[in-house]
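sry for the spam today, last one i promise. struct tokens for design, 171 residues
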């Protein structure tokens, strides 16, 4: 309810958490910076902002805030994520290592084509495409071969997958 939020906001009983500042368009960086400054100057609301390491200093300087560095998503986190994803898919233990290795190789190629560090969202997209469509990774024909792979094609395929799933549910 709008009125409830407004009362909580005015009572400074809200915590603002802006996640993924590195994912916003560069054209909105100044807007977000100004917005967070205004909120800080006009209220006592506690704010938390998250971004990848490569933008941390920029936001730290422009917002004059202290920084808490979270442990990055590393290879052991990646393995754990994929193992849990596969468990959720109902795969038995003998398939886990093979699938893990396959996904790892593809994920490394994805990372080599971006300026990004390990990105949990991209890893999830790759896992879902791998297990739902068996594209890219298993060598089956797809719209684009891995050699022509782009980050845009990963997002396009993932959106198409989600659209197909939604279309099936609506039948």
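last one done:
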């Amino acid at each position: 309810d709008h009125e409830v939020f407004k009362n909580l906001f005015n009572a400074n009983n809200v915590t603002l958490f802006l996640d993924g500042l590195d994912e916003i368009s560069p054209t909105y960086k100044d807007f977000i910076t100004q917005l967070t400054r205004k909120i800080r100057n006009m209220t006592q609301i506690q704010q938390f902002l998250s971004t990848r390491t490569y933008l941390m200093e920029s936001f730290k300087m422009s917002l004059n805030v202290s920084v808490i560095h979270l442990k990055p998503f590393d290879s052991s986190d990646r393995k754990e994520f994929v193992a849990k994803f596969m468990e959720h898919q109902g795969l038995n233990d003998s398939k886990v290592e093979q699938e893990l290795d396959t996904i790892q190789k593809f994920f490394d190629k994805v990372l080599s084509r971006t300026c990004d560090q390990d990105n949990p969202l991209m890893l999830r997209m790759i896992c879902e495409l791998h297990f739902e469509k068996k594209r890219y990774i298993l060598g089956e024909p797809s719209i684009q071969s891995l050699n022509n792979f782009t980050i845009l094609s990963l997002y396009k395929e993932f959106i198409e997958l989600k659209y197909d799933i939604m279309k099936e549910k609506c039948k």
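The radius of gyration is 20 Å. ok im logging off now
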